[in-house]
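User: I'm putting together notes for a lab meeting next week and I want to include a structural view of one of the chains we've been expressing. I don't have a solved structure, so I'd like a prediction I can at least talk through. The sequence is below, exactly as it appears in our construct file.
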Amino acid sequence: MKRNIIILAALIFTFSGCRNEDQNLTADVEIPVSVDEIKLKTIEEFVNTTGTAIPKGEIELKSRIAATYFLERNPRTGKMWQMGNKVNTGELIARLEDEEYVNSVKMETNQLNLELMETELRKQESLYEKGGVTLKELKTAGINYENAKTTVINSKLQLERTKIVAPINGVIVDLPYNTQGTQIETGVSVVKIMDYQTMFMDVQLPEKYISVIKPGQVVKLTNYTIPEDTIIGYVTQLSPAINADTRTFKGSVSIDNQDYLLRPGMFVKADIVTNHKDSVIVIPKNIILSRQRGKTVFVVDRGIAVERIIETGLENITEIEVTNGLSKNVRIVTGGFETLGNRSKVKIIN
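Assistant: Thanks for the context. Below is the predicted structure for the 350-residue chain, given as structure tokens.
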């Protein structure tokens, strides 16, 4: 019996020794982690929404007479106008030729008649000053002159129907007829122009943000076709009414699209900036651990990971402001923190 007790005691001692050795071995293991040095930066809070970009101006020019169609040349390229070309107000895009129509306008005759009526008016004015004609005769000459001037103006307007001229600055987005000498009828679409250096977007915003979103706030816009570029816009209008079915309210965003990165009809992701701070401590949200004591992160000090309790402020989808618990230039663990315990030995791998 005494011999059995001695053996059991020896086994317990041996097991305890092995366990202590394992613990010491574990304590000496350096856990690989990635760290970043905390620097002050800017953080923004924003409300996410989406919408479709629409152009500031859009106009479709149609033929106002039946005539033969001739496309003009772009003065900047020397080539025929094409879809995608930028146009300026007043530039000639196409001509509509119809000799019979032009003759019927009688522009030269009407212009000559205007000159005669003007001469007659000046003559009557001179005679009236000398008492050579009555006031009635002078007024009659004035009426004839004004009628002749109106006829010339109408003739010019009629001749303008033979020219397809850009009424706005913009980009040609549709050019249905481009074969020289094509005969077209009245009311046929000739060209469509859009001005989209400035664009607009209507958005539907959740009811809970009605007191947060205000006109004038900056909006950052992106589209999957331009992932590296952010376009700036501004909230211009907000409806005070809530849609009872969707629990949303309507807003309008003006978009500065000077480089034509956005195209009309594009589906756009918009981040409305509702708050921001400069020169504050900002960390990734995904490195924060929820403990019973509160939110914690790990910082590295002389090869040891130390758990810190933090307090936070502004936040967005990926980042959060730290208002207490961290300071500038501290090295914070951003990778490998999942297996750390307080005062674990670490090996920095980045």
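A couple of points you could mention at the meeting. Residues 2-28 form the longest helix (27 residues). DSSP finds four helices and 21 strands in the chain.

User: Perfect, that's what I needed.
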